[in-house]
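User: Fold this; tokens only.

Assistant: Input:
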Amino acid sequence: MKIGKVYDSYYRIQTLYVTDCKLIDFVKKHKRQLDETSMNVLMEVIQRDPAGFHSVFHTDCGDLYFIWIYNHKDFSVMTHEIHHMICSIFEDRDVPVGINNQEAFAYYMSFWISKFIEIGKKRK
């Protein structure tokens, strides 16, 4: 199990990236740190048995953008989930997503991919 926190100072968001484990194993290990709503969301996702997952958890300390990928080498799943996360971030900050803003989206996608690849390369 690899876990990395990444703070984006531009949009002022905290992201938690979890990889190389089953989602249920992460939940079991960190259940004391999860509130009831987050736990319910994660348990529902576990029932679907996906290869990746993204959500925004609203906490007392602010929003936490959460991404879990079963295998950090599965770049198609990683980019899929990062896409969802960026759409959430842009929507939360009223940043338009569309043809006129695709360059900002592309640069932001590259930023997150490079951060998550770094985390995936770290030893357990």
